[in-house]
Amino acid sequence: MRKTLTALVFAASLPVLAFAMPGPGGMEGHDGHGKRGGQHHQMFHKDLDLTKEQRSEMRKLMSEQFKAQHEITQRYLDKLPEAERNALTEERKASQEKTHQAMRGLLKPEQQVKFDEAMEKMKEKRAERAEFEKWKADRAQQ
């Protein structure tokens, strides 16, 4: 059940990763090495019984792919007017919340408590990351 829950949380987070964009609610500065992806990749590696070298190369390829997808997406997002970018952000948030509520509805009450705790931890980590990225950007400008 834990693997299923982890997979569901990861699947619900994919839109955020796939359409990573700067601005309110975006993932500015995200480099593709987040824990959610790491947990998914660990399961992937265990299933394939990869060697240390294979894991390293797979990680490198996945990181490059993530960066390439982000750059492609960013090129198109940069062409959108700010109002449309904001609308996109809000629509993505609403879609993610709808998915989270549907996922939560599949769970037993004790699982829902754990799910809520996991979602809160992810929210806190995103806030910490955003604060760190802001600090890093401010420091770079000095």
TrEMBL record:
InterPro entries in alphabetical order: Cpx_auxiliary_protein (IPR052211)
Q: Where is this region: Disordered?
A: 26-45, 83-105, 120-142
Annotated keywords:
Signal
- Signal peptide residues are 1-20
Respond yes or no to whether keyword Signal is given for this record: yes
**What spans are recorded as compositionally biased (Basic and acidic residues)?**
83-100
What name is this protein filed under?
Answer: Spy/CpxP family protein refolding chaperone
Its lineage opens with: Bacteria, Pseudomonadati, Pseudomonadota, Gammaproteobacteria, Pseudomonadales
